[in-house]
């Protein structure tokens, strides 16, 4: 079932019955009377809340494990049990195309469950998380894969990656209790010919992480910009000099959008923690 509440009321407003486990729901970004649901009965449904009925549905080839609308609400995406993501037009749930979020070879070649999806605010790209401990960034113009990111552990649970508001960073929880961060731009240039090292600019396994929970870090996300604006932060207080570091220890990073950034994470044992990046990394 899907249960609907209002944040100002204690009682349930409505109940929407399904024939199997409901794995994902999403509100329409522009119509608050519409929501989307995905289920283990392999059906993607669009519901009208006031009328409490299904207005459109589509049959998927496998269990649906994630779903979302595009930012303009004109497109619906269903993530499946073996790594496929199917794109539909919202009107009539007409099939558009699909992408396979899986490796071409190796033990994950069969594909793993899609655990989450997130669009950039302008709808030009989509970030898709899967249970092979990877997530992939796709270009919506031609559905090509712009980059694949790895480093965290995500093989069992419904852990999904999140983009920062400026789309420069990605954060994700992990089954090892850590929170992991990546940059969306891979600026590394290998000293050796990439053909010899296997280096590819569309693959990014360079990350930072920190221990956030003793149990599994089930969720990690960036606080919105307006939250950062309300928290007083003086970068000069956390400069290398203010921290007593030598000039040679400072690591100079392009841009400073990560300074002052606020992260929120939740753990499997029920705790919620808030972190703020108050300084730049130092060389040991």
Tell me what you see in this structure:
This protein starts with a strand and ends in an 8-residue tail after the last strand. It is built from two helices and 22 strands. Helix content is 4%, strand content 41%. The strands form six sheets. The chain has a five-stranded mixed beta sheet with strand order 11-12-13-14-18, with no helix packed on it. Residues 251-255 have low confidence and may be disordered.
Estimate the global geometry from the Cα principal axes.
Answer: globular
Largest beta-sheet characterization: 5 strands, mixed
Which structural class fits the helix and strand makeup? mainly beta
The helicity comes to under 10%
Low-pLDDT parts are 251-255
The termini sit apart by 53 Å
Across the major sheet, the strand order is 11-12-13-14-18
Write down the overall mean pLDDT: 85
Question: Which series of helices and strands comes N to C?
Answer: EEEEEEEEEEEEEEEEEHEEEHEE
* Rg calc: 21 Å
Classify the oligomer. Answer: single chain
What's the tally of helices? Answer: 2
Instruction: Tally the beta strands.
Output: 22
Question: How big a fraction of the residues is strand?
Answer: 35-45%
Quick gist of this model?
The chain has helices at 194-197, 225-230, and strands spanning 2-4, 14-16, 22-27, 34-39, 43-48, 53-59, 64-69, 75-80, 84-89, 94-100, 114-119, 125-130, 134-139, 144-150, 162-163, 169-172, 178-183, 203-204, 208-211, 217-222, 262-267, 272-276. The protein is mostly beta strands.
